[in-house]
Amino acid sequence: MCKNHTIPEKNTSKGEKNIHDKEHSTWNRRSFIQALGLAGAGGIMLGHASIAASKPSPLSVALAASENENILVIIRLKGGNDGLNTIVPVYDYATYANLRPNIRHQQSNLINLNADFAIPNYMSALESVWGDGKMKVIHGVGYPQQNLSHFRSAAIWASTDDINVEPTGWWGRYYEDLYPDYLINPPEVPPAVQIGSIGDLIFEGNDSNYAFSVANTEQLANVAQNGVQHNVTDLPDCVYGDKLLFMRATTNTTVRYSSVINDAYLASSNSSSYSDEDLAKQLAIVARLIKGNLGTKVYMVTLDGFDTHANQVDAQRALLEDLSDSIKDFYDDLAATGMDDKVLTMTISEFGRRPYENGSNGTDHGAASPVMLFGAGLDGNGFVGTHPNLTEWDANDNLIPTSDFRDIYSTVLTEWFCLDPSVVSTILLNQTYQTLNMGITCQSLSNTDFSDTTRFVHIPIYQNNRTLIEINMPNTANVDIRLYDMMGREVGLLENKILYPGKYSIDVKEKVKTRLSYGQYIYRISTGGQFYSKSIQIR
C-alpha cells in the first residue's frame, strides 16, 4: 500500500531557492523545446545544422509591419445569448412585452442607455462603463441563413465561412501567415491564450492551433502561479507514485509556454476585487498577464450556460451579472496601470434567441443578437447599425440580422490591429467586408500596397498509399525540402533544385530513399530566404 511521502526542504536561503526554481523552470521549457524540435530564442539544431530565424515572407512583412501594442479579448457567450433581454428595445416596449409576457423585463427594472435602449438593472455595473464612454453595442449581428446548430454556428463564427465546412479559423489563418515556420521556430510568447475550452477553431490553422489552451480557470491559475500544471511533490512512495511522477513531469514539460506565462503572472497583481464567479476568475488572470507584459495579442475566455430553453430569467441573470461585474472590474484593473486604452473586449455568441418566449419560460435558438464592445480605446459610447424589426421574422420565426459578424472582424483587424485591407481579405478567405464605425480608428495604417502579394502554398496529400507534399510555386526559385522525425533529427533530403512556377507533387517515400516507419514527421521547405514547416504522416 502506498504511503504519502513528503520531500523535506533543504535549509536554503530564499535567494538560493529562487535560483533553484528558476533553473528548473528553464530546464523544463528547454527540455520540451529540444524534445519536439521547437525553437526558443536563438534557434535550434535540426539534423546537426544550426537553424536561425528565417527571413519573413512578403505577407509576413505586411502583418508584422502593422503590429501595434493593441490587445483583443474575446468573450464567448456560449450557448446563444438572448439579445432582447440583454439590450432591451424600449423604443418598442409594447411589442417586446407582448412577445414575452412571462420573461420580459419590467420597465421599472431597466436602466436606460439612451431613449431607445436599456439594460436590466442587475447589469448596473455597466452603467458607469457606458457613462465613461467605454462601451458600444452593435445591433442585430449574425449572418444570412442562420444555422441553428450550436456546433455548426459556432464553427461559422470561428471560420467565417457560412457555406463550406472550413477547417481553419480567422485567427489561425492570421498566425499561420505570420509564423509560417511555427513548428520549428515558434514565437517567444503564446500568440493567443484561450480559457474555457480546448483548441477552439478560431485559432486553428491548417497544421497547428496557435492558442495556449486550458480547460478551466484553475488549470491556468496553476500554470500562472507555478509555471507547471501538476504537483510533483508529496507523491506516494511506491511504484504508482513513481509512474505518477513520470507522467506529471512529462505533462509539465510539454506545456510550451508555461514559464513565460508564470513570469508575466508573477510580475503583476490585480488592483480590483473580482468576484468568485466563472468569468471574473478568467478575466482576473487575463488582466495579470496583460499587466505583466506577456505580449500575447489575443485572449479568449468563455462564459457557458446561455442555452436558455427553460427558466431563462434566473439563468441569464446570473450570467449577465457575472459579465457586467467582471467587465467593470477588468477595466478598473487595467486602468490602474494605464493599459485600459490598449485592450478591446468583444462579446460573441453563436446565435441569438427567438423573439417570442416558449412554453418553458425560455427562448429557443434564434438568429440576430447584439455584440458588445468595451474599452477606453473606443471614441465614446454609442450604438452601431440598425436594430432588427421586432415584427419582421425569417422563415424560422427569427429576427433578421442587420449586421454581419464578419464586418466586425474586418473592422477589428483593419482599425484596431492596423492591418492592410488586402491582408485582411486574405485572412477572411479572400472576401471583402464592410468597415463599421465602431469607434476605433487606426492612426498608423501603412500605405504600402500588398495587393499583389503571392502566397507560397504547400500541403500534405495522402492517396493510394502514397504520402505527397504538394507545393504551388508562385515564381522561379530554388527549393530545399527535408524530412525530420519528431525529435528534430533529419531523416532525408526530399528535393533541392530550381523549380519553375506551377504545381509540384513530391512523393515522400520515393524521394527519401530509406525505409520510413509509420507515424508523424515534420517536413521543412526552404525557398526565397523563407522557411515553411508542417507536420506530415507516413501511413
From TrEMBL:
It comes from the Bacteria. The keyword Signal applies. Residues 1-24 are annotated as: Disordered. Keywords: Signal. This is DUF1501 domain-containing protein.
